[in-house]
């Protein structure tokens, strides 16, 4: 399975997991010039921008792959998404990471809510 197909598979697993936890997904794979956000959804009062990362059993921890550079790119993309959809500054937002670790048949999923703060330009 190529990298893109594998990523799509785990993004779908993350989507199903988040929905089972009460998140209403409104966008998958939002792309623009600024970057890409894997999942966007409402969870309680928050609009959550979610990065999904997968790592095999012995390939390091998945969440560690969300570097400061990646966080900065997600924040810029989220700013554009909010601008494009008319979402004002009064809307509570957060940045989540779903880390999926392990074997394909039975992966371990960890949801880090509010995983990092907004990085301003």
3D architecture notes:
The model has no long low-confidence stretch (mean pLDDT 91). 29% of the residues lie in helices and 39% in strands. It contains two helices and five strands. The protein has a five-stranded mixed sheet. It is an alpha+beta fold and 121 residues long. It has helices at 3-20, 68-84, and strands at residues 24-32, 35-43, 46-55, 92-101, 108-116. 23% of the residues are buried.
In order across it, which strands form the biggest sheet? 1-2-3-4-5
Tell me the number of helical segments per DSSP (H or I, 4 or more residues long).
Answer: 2
SSE run: HEEEHEE
Radius of gyration: 14 Å
Structural class: alpha+beta
What's this, in brief?
By secondary structure, the chain is of the alpha+beta class. About 30% of the residues lie in helices and about 40% in strands. About 25% of the residues are buried.
From the structure above, extract its key features.
single chain, 121 residues, alpha+beta, five-stranded mixed sheet, 2 helices
Give a topology summary.
Layout lengths: L2 H18 L3 E9 L2 E9 L2 E10 L12 H17 L7 E10 L6 E9 L5
Parallel strand pairs: 3-4
Antiparallel strand pairs: 1-2, 2-3, 4-5
């Amino acid at each position: 399975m190529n990298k893109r197909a594998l990523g799509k598979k785990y993004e779908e697993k993350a989507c199903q997991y988040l929905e089972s936890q009460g998140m209403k997904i409104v966008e998958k794979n939002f792309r623009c010039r600024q970057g890409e956000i894997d999942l966007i959804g409402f969870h309680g009062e928050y609009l959550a921008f979610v990065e999904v990362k997968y790592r095999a059993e012995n390939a390091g921890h998945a969440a560690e792959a969300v570097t400061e550079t990646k966080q900065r790119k997600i924040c810029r993309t989220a700013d554009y998404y909010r601008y494009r959809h008319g979402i004002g500054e009064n809307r509570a937002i957060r940045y989540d990471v779903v880390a999926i670790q392990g074997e394909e048949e039975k992966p371990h999923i960890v949801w880090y809510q509010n995983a990092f703060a907004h990085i301003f330009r």
